[in-house]
Write a structure and sequence with these properties.
Aldehyde Dehydrogenase, Chain A, domain 2, Aldehyde Dehydrogenase, Chain A, domain 1, seven-stranded mixed sheet, alpha/beta, 15 helices, 480 residues, binds ligand TXE
Amino acid sequence: MEKILNYIGGKLVEPSSGKYLDNFNPSEGKVYSLVADSDENDVNEAVRAAKQAFPSWSTMPTEERCKILLRVADLIDRDLEKLALAESIDNGKTVKLAKAVDIYRASANMKFYATAAMHFASEAHVNDGDSINYTTRMPIGVVGCISPWNLPLYLFTWKIAPALAAGCTVIGKPSELTPMTAFLFSKLCIEAGLPAGVLNIIHGLGGKAGQAIIEHTEITAISFTGGTVTGKKIAATAAPMFKKLSLELGGKNPNIVFADCDFEQTIKTSLLSSFTNQGEICLCGSRIFVERSLLDRFVSEFVKRTKELKVGDPLDSSTQLGALVSEAHLKKVLGYVSLAKEEGGKILAGGNQLKIDGRCANGYFMEPTVIVGLDEKCRTNQEEIFGPVVTIMPFDTEEEALALANSTLYGLSATIWTENLKRAHRVAHQIKSGIIWINCWLHRDLRTAFGGMKQSGVGREGGWEAIKFFTEAKNVCVKL
Ligand code: TXE
């Protein structure tokens, strides 16, 4: 059984406890590797290595840092097939999606921030000829980057790339549910010649290895993506320690469909925003609001096409939905389907666990599910389900659509479908979400500020936001 080791001080090492956790292949429902069950001793080792590496890494000419990070990106490109297969086996998503989205984006993250560092500048202010202020933005030190299981290497690199490009040294912890690609990534870092201790990857449980990272007094900033509940726990630990915090949390995103939309485009993209990655993307549009005059036509076409989606073996190129990430998560999502029924919902498509023939007979699969007949205040429409489950509700006026859209504690993203662009901008500006898509979904430009409002997070990633997060601004005023 393959062992997933920690990456500390440039070496792949066993956890100090010698203990390992089972790592499941969710498509087959069985253990296929072991992952280091690390604790604070491993974190202390990693911080020691990161501290030792910081002076040279943070003062290395930016072009040098850029070249090393670009070498890592080139190795990701070289190993695209291998990494995509590994991601699919570890997470349950289709290989097709892992290739086109996860691994492609992991490489893009590295390239984007490697080159961004070359153009990162700070500001100066001349004050009426009697003084000049200049601002320096220096790397903040040893930082902690904690990432989730839904887009494993994509979100892991989305954090460590800006941190490394800014000149920080990193303690990274991927989810214990999907550790494999971070492990393969650490081997690519060694091959690329990333200096020892610049990046350290600690595997293991959130409440143990993860918590030890949050608590470590010499880790100056924490960048976290995961659930809102965990985000609250992390903030409670880190805030009294005055650590800089970036929290990318859950979502319950509205997908608002006006009657004048481009119907075919809206249906096609709404299927993607509902069920891509088995609905396990924080940006998925899980609450669909349809203008009443279009409701019947939308519901019948959306339900028809939902039923045609192929759930199956993620290695099969014709599969559109793979397995959910774990048995516990499958049970959680199916629990929400039962809750929806108790709350008066009507299941128009799906709702059941799926048994797939062949090698996946014991995998964690379920049908894509469409629910109608609920009001916006019920738990099904208030809580993040994070699975292939959407609800559809009608609205009559723009004001009602906005009230529905803004009716949860979350505020991550939203989509708006209308050909009336004046209305689109008017509605976009009144939705309390950090990311709005008009007539598209998940159309990403890495330069944009990325993050949520309300309980969807604190701070922003993306573009200069992420590099600024990993630097400390200092203003110097000189009397002329
Ligand atoms: O994520 P967790 P989970 C949502 C989704 C999901 C829920 C819980 O609704 O059902 O969150 O998912 C680490 N100190 N999202 O439990 O717990 C953990 O090891 C430090 C949305 O899988 O948030 C992992 O590496 N670290 C989200 C990471 O935090 C801790 C994507 C995420 O784990 C920790 C995933 C602690 N005390 C889930 N506890 C999104 N926004 O994309 C856990 N961790």
